[in-house]
Amino acid sequence: MKKTDIKIVDIKKSFDGVDVLKNINLEIKDGEFFSILGPSGCGKTTLLRMIAGFIAPDSGAIYLGDENIVDLAPNKRNVNTIFQKYALFPHLTVYENVAFPLRLKKIDEKTIDSEVKKFIELVDLKEHMNKKPNQLSGGQQQRVSIARALINKPGVLLLDEPLSALDAKLRQNLLIELDNIHDEVGITFIFITHDQQEALSISDRIAVMNKGEVLQVGTPAEVYEAPADTFVADFIGENNFFDGVVTEIFDETYGRIETEKLGNLVFELDKVVKVGDKIRVSIRPEKIRVSKQIPTGLSDKHNTLKVYVDELIYSGFQSKYFVWVDGDKNLLFKAFKQHAVYFDEDDNDTIHWNEDAYISWHADDSFLVEVI
């Protein structure tokens, strides 16, 4: 099969004088599961529709392999699109819905039958092939639309928030199936979503967008552990931030930051900074240790703060602690504590609501987000 690398070069688009896409540059590898992640209105769906050919850019180029496809009609591009709405023909069976693209091409019946059954089996709907769409669940209907798109054997499958209409559990199940289908067919998937967990769990790489710009491209681990700026750090997962001035650099890879209200804290030098720089540092809630007693045996690379437990939310495998530092409601930290078993209310180490506690973390677990 012809290679289907995608290269987006200097793409710009505005509507009514508002810049929707600002000089977008992206390279998507052949066979990659690539997600474009961002909040509503960031331009991700506009970009997807440009790749599909439904919207023309004001300037720039989109290469599919070696060919600039900007001037090609949608039906001339080697891509297929799956939307949020399933767009199935209600009067046709699953079999006939999947067969429809091949019938348009006037493929012979023997080939149609073989191909339709193959792709219906791929999406695990063999027992439902004679049903109408209204006899299927939402997840099953979306799988029909996936089979119908794949039967055209596109080089690229574009997925515009295809799971957003499903409930949480069904969405997670179909996400796993979608990943398996991608592994099976081996073509390029471009997946649009505003759901960070979807993107993190399924993607080879992620492009994070905001306000018409690509802020970062990287693997799920890269964008989570080493966010490019405050927006990415805050948008993907939960985070705590503190600002301050660098007062010391020591051991070559660590520094101290003087904050206005949290005092002196240690951080890892993820970026090049110098004494006197004002910086922003983050610490993920799951990397914070919560304890009832002041922690002992910590090194000089640890930070410890006394806190007050304002809110405690038990959610099965973990508890979420929302704590104030020094009784200041504006100094709110989030910390997660994992549970192997349910905590004992009479245990002396159990931390309760409306109690004092301590949070601590190693400097290596923090991240220097940016110089501000």
Describe this protein's structure.
The protein is of the alpha+beta class and 372 residues long. It has 2 domains: 6-235, P-loop containing nucleotide triphosphate hydrolases (Rossmann fold), CATH 3.40.50; 240-371, OB fold (Dihydrolipoamide Acetyltransferase, E2P). 23% of the residues lie in helices and 37% in strands. The chain has helices at 44-52, 94-104, 109-122, 138-150, 168-185, 196-202, 220-225, 230-235; strands at residues 6-15, 18-28, 33-37, 59-64, 67-68, 79-82, 156-160, 188-193, 205-210, 213-218, 240-250, 254-259, 263-268, 278-283, 289-291, 302-314, 318-325, 328-338, 356-362, 366-371. A 6-stranded mixed sheet has the order 6-7-8-3-9-10, with helices on both faces. Strands 13-12-11-14-20 form a 5-stranded antiparallel sheet. It has a 5-stranded antiparallel sheet with strand order 15-19-16-17-18, with no helix packed on it. It is elongated and about 75 Å long. The mean pLDDT is 90.
Short description:
This protein is α+β, with helices and mostly antiparallel strands and 372 residues long.
